[in-house]
Amino acid sequence: MTIRTRVAPSPTGLPHLGTAYVALFNRAFAHQNSGKFVLRMEDTDVERSSLESDQAIQVALRWLGLDWDEGPDIGGTHGPYRCSERLSIYHDLIAELVAIGGAFYCFCTKDRLDTVRASQRQQGLVPKYDGHCIGLSSQEIQTEIENGTPHVIRLKIPTEGSCVFHDTLRGTIEIPWGQVDMQVLLKSDRFPTYHFAASVDDHLMEISHIFRGEEWLSSCPKHQLIYSYFGWEQPELIHLPLLRNPDHSKISKRKQSTSINYFRRCGYLPDALLNYLATMGFSMPDEREMFSYQEFQEAFTPSRVSTSGPVFDIAKLSWLNGQYIRNLSHSEFKEKLGDWAFGDGRADAILRVMQDRTERFDDVFAQADYLLGERITLTADSFNHKKLSSEDCVRVLYFSQFLLEQLHEWKSEVISEAFKKLATKLDLKFRDFLFPLFVAISGRSVSLPLFDSIQILGLDVVHARLRSAIHALGGVSKKIAKRLDAEWHQHTS
Ligand code: GLU
Fold this sequence. Notes:
Elements: E1 4-7, H1 17-32, E2 36-39, H2 51-63, H3 87-99, E3 103-106, H4 110-122, H5 138-146, E4 152-155, E5 162-167, E6 171-176, E7 184-186, H6 194-204, E8 209-213, H7 220-230, E9 236-240, H8 260-266, H9 270-281, H10 293-299, H11 314-327, H12 330-342, H13 346-355, H14 362-372, H15 390-405, H16 412-425, H17 430-442, H18 450-472, H19 478-492
Parallel strand pairs: 1-2, 8-9
Antiparallel strand pairs: 3-4, 4-7, 5-6
Helix pairs in contact: 1-9, 1-10, 6-7, 8-18, 9-11, 13-14, 13-18, 15-16, 15-17, 15-18, 16-18, 17-18
Glutamic acid binds next to helix 6.
């Protein structure tokens, strides 16, 4: 059997560390066994997916050296490799699944589903679809379709018994069918859901082993059922432990940087980042912590993957990165530093902003320090302002995170326009509104032009700075976050 593995990110945002972590294990295992490693873009969510994110994920994986044997850019024998380009495949197979009785049409409105769920919650039950449309006759279905009633197609779940499946790390797992929802497989926009697309694609792409995050364990019964309705053989499943924040919660961008781009911008070496990611789920037989990708690929065996949640600790990564940097020859160090500073046009962008503000060349470094370096130390006192309280500052910074994430274009004029609107909504004078942002981004209240600075730094670094500024101001409790989220929702709806 040819070993075939895949990583299947959803292109809905910045390239995530988790994608690199999962790609690393899949790639190493495939190549160790002379197999193939596939990149598949799961762009099943039309609203949230973007080609920009798709491209950024590819760039980030390549930067790490995690390139693929088949994928959306290079094609391959099992393409296409984007879900949005495979719709006719899903449509044919869903029709087959309905015909063999494994799925059914559902015409329930959102209002009906909301009412059902609310009453289930009231009774202390886990909300699930109640099977309302399961018994519709083919005549009724035909009439609804002819009337143009919006509909979805759902998976039929056995009414009794349990799903039993195997995970290489965890052994046999049994989940009663009663706990499994009648999952939507095809949405009303005729796009498949993740569950249907992943099962179909893994089968058609002849994926033999799936290494993925453990958050997908609970989805396995749905996938297993789809496989068994079609009579397909399920791939071997290896659910890797989730990366965690230092407080042991699931890694999230609200608590620390999760974008690969952030680590690239800060000057971590790809080899060091890969090495650190490998230690998250795996330990070398001799327990050493520093090893190359090649050594990892040779030594890797699923039996040495741990199931306990590894903490992604940036301080530890920095230490490891320092070891890698010390091991470089002086000329490699100069070359890599030069690539980092000049490679993506950053130094040039900084110098453009600087030229009009330079009287002597030695002004340059003093003014541009925060654009090149990352670690600014802020305290609550850094945000003392005669008109703004620290709560006001937190509000501005918190909403700015959302605002910047949603920008359609990363350009200083667009950023400035969006901030102006936000200041008006928050009923703050623009000057006052900008104060906490200046401090968060540059570490001082007056700096080079703020919007240019934000454009140069990029979303990942800016996000990290806003987050550490909020932290310096005492952070946001769950209760306040809830209130602010609701307020943001109001502003944007
Ligand atoms: N698209 C899913 C994700 O973003 C893939 C899950 C899987 O590997 O099956 O994580």
